[in-house]
Prior knowledge:
heterodimer, A: Rossmann fold, eight-stranded mixed β-sheet, three-stranded antiparallel β-sheet, 11 helices, 30% helix, B: alpha/beta, seven-stranded mixed β-sheet, six-stranded mixed β-sheet, globular
Amino acid sequence: xNNVQTVSKPTPKDFATDQEVRWCPGxxxxxxxxxxxxxxxxxxxxxxxxxxxxxxGCASRxxxxxxxYGFHTIHGRAPAIATGVKLANPELDVWVVTGDGDGLSIxxxxxxxxxxxNVDLNILLFNNEIYGLTKGQYxxxxxxxTKTASTPYGSVDRPIDACQFALGCGSTFIxxxxxxxxxxxxxxxxxxxxxxxxxxVEIFQxxxxxxxxxxxDFTDKAVAAEAQLHAIHGEPLxxxxxxxxxxxxxxxxxxxxxxxxxKDGVTLDDIIVHDETDKTLASLLVNLERPDFPxxxxxxxxxPESTFEAEIHKQIESVKAExxxxxxxxxIRQGRIWEVT
Amino acid sequence: MESSSLKQDQRSQASxxxxxxxxxxxxxxxxIQLTGSQFAVSTALSGSDLATFPDFPAEIRAPxxxxxxxxxxxxxxxxxxxxxxxxxxxxxxxxxxxxxxVNLPILREGGLVIVDTGTFVDRNLKKAKYESNPLKDGxxxxxxxxxxxxxRLTLEAVKxxxxxxxxxxxxxxxWSLGLMLWLFGRKRxxxxxxxxxxxxxxxxxxxxxxxxxxxxxxxxxxxxxxxNFTGFRIGPSELAPGTYRTVTGSQALAWGLxxxxxxxxxxxxYGSYPITPASPILHLLSxxxxxxxxxxxxxxxxxxxxxxxxxxxxxxxxxxxxxxxxIALKAEAIGLALSVELPLVVVxxxxxxxxxxxxxxxxxxxLYQALYGRNGDAPVPVIAPxxxxxxxxxxxxxxxxxxKYMTPVILLTDGYLANAAEPWLLPDIDTLDPIPVTQRTTPxxxxxxxxxxxxxxxxxxxxxxxxxxxxxxxxxxxxxKSYDTGHISYDHExxxxxxxxxxxxxxxxxxxxxxxxxxxxxxxxxxxxVGWGSTYGPIxxxxxxxxxxxxxxxHIHLRHLNPLPRNLGNLFDGFxxxxxxxxxxxxxxxxxxxxxxxxxxPLNKVSGQPFKISEILDAIRDELLAKAAE
Lengths: 341, 630
């Protein structure tokens, strides 16, 4: 839209609607909402060009609270609807808000294909390992043995890891962050926004009512430094309060090993330097399991490629350029026609 | 005696329209006469009357690949009495370029030509005296063509037989025969029996021929080729003056959607997932990128409709298309589109159901699905083209209603219309009415909030504000919305009001569609034959014949099924009885009873075949002669 007008730079308040936020008190979603309202002015987002598309679930109420364009759609289908939005208008800045049930269960297929096609979407998956809106059933990310309303004896099916899934789908950007980390989350959102193509962000989000503290083993302030590894491109993969722990390739294997610098002859030179364009490294990082390894957060993988909608429109433009002015009257008169008098 | 002979004569006329002429052509060494005669045997065993015409060169072995070495076999078959081998073939199987060259001139406009692409190499083209490849230079534009590398597929099918390449290739007549048996629903058993007998002593040849026959048959089945393409032939004297071309329903529909995009000035975004018999629309639109058409082959039916909804949300013309099973999957999303009141065109190409049913056979059994197949009180306008050419105009009508009323619209076509070709009087796009579209760009007055559900007082359509427009940022969703603000509302009175307004909006479209008229016959009389969709052809001809017999019958054909034309009840009041032929178990009958409180007489057929003129004519006679005499 070429509506040229002098407008003042929006503030976080300009991105908040007058609607009463209806998540449970203490829900991790509040922090994510605040963070989003905070970063949009910082990245020069325009409310009129920003669209939030969501599916169904607690997370999917998100668009109602953003003073932008918003579409609260149906269960699991947000990536498909957002794909249509981008096909119609590639200029729009489209965020998809989904959850572990919405994105990985009922909508798994659409998430797969949005990532595979590399549609220029910023996809935020709020993972709380539970169905909140339907009152506490286990989800596809719930760990084995999770006791819920629908699994009173504990769930038996194997969970999926969101980032492993995204990587397998051919995602060109994968990151992880934590709802309560107001320092880290904005940097991840900004990177996701800057990435052209499908950016996949998994946010560990605490459901205070149905699955409280499920991520506490690495999100609690007391343990965070020891349990989280913040991957930064070009820097060694170090963690711990003293930054004396790190990841190296276990000699003689293609596996990672958590090591302590200065112990067993390990030096800083042994620690892998994070290369976010290295898919093999990304695949090793998202496969690390707690508690033997730290939870890897930050931008794990980023390797831009041409976007789906850009390729689609490029093809249309090239056909247009080749065929000259399109004339439907002439088009339907191609081939054999005849006169009846 | 006299009346019975009259009847006999009329039936034979009907069969002229319903018979099919198939011509096999190839090199004289291709075994064309064997193929043709075996097809004739299986056809005869299926109960069809037939006449055949072997047409082969005088030379026993004319030089291979030349035009004078072409051998052909023509067969005319039909349900009634068939007296001749037919004039113009409806189907031509051409096993090499020379066979195409010799036989194409007699194929009727819009006929089907099946070619063995494996033989269209430079050497053969030269022998047939083709300057350029007719498969690529547009020579076949006036026909439906199916290009198959029959040579390669035959070699593949018989590769375990131990035959050399030359002998193996000679099985391609059996491969083609297998395909034609599939296309016309003929049995393979008589051919197996014949092969068993003929090649009893040469097992390898027998087995290779059987393998080729089965492979051709399986090819038709797995690629879901359909024989629903004949169309009803109309004599040149019945055509209005003007420029014509042949058009299939799929072509006309695709072009109509592009015309709708052109007339509204909105880019077309077409989200679709392949399904028989709807896929040709996707193929055709993907060849129209010069018109700015975006085609999106989605990961599934749900994503297809959702992408179209997303495109409409962002200000384009979103269209999706499928057949019954796919429409079932789209149901929830269609409900979303009507709840958020976004324009959306849903094309449903009906086929035999339920479930996977009969993908290549035609049926009209998804009327209920279109009218009622959603959760909640979810009214959707439903329209149905009546002929291949009408698909063009009804596609434009679907676009018009969707944009004017901000609603999903379902266009019900079927497998028969999709594939059938007919001569079509070409419209002048420049003279068609533009479709006005209003996308709001002015922000609300200072201090007032924008309500995206503010309505046009006449059409009740909501305001359309497209992302990218400053000052009109808003949120929509599938939750109930407040009539006054557009925000989420759980208020019970509001839900009543919103439900009522959604109903009233769709019902009000009745004021904006043409009044119903009769297609043929008086505005009143003893009997009206009421149809919708692709039954137009047989009803039209049956009524003409019945009237020629002096029967007081009229033809009424509905193109708008929801809402129905305002005057329909009054029009029906002028008739003593109403006969409703449908390719389902009586869906329009119950709809008419529901809406108009009238009882109609059902005439139902769900055999996967279109109605025959004679079947409808017999039903008319039955109502007006037999029952009247009782």
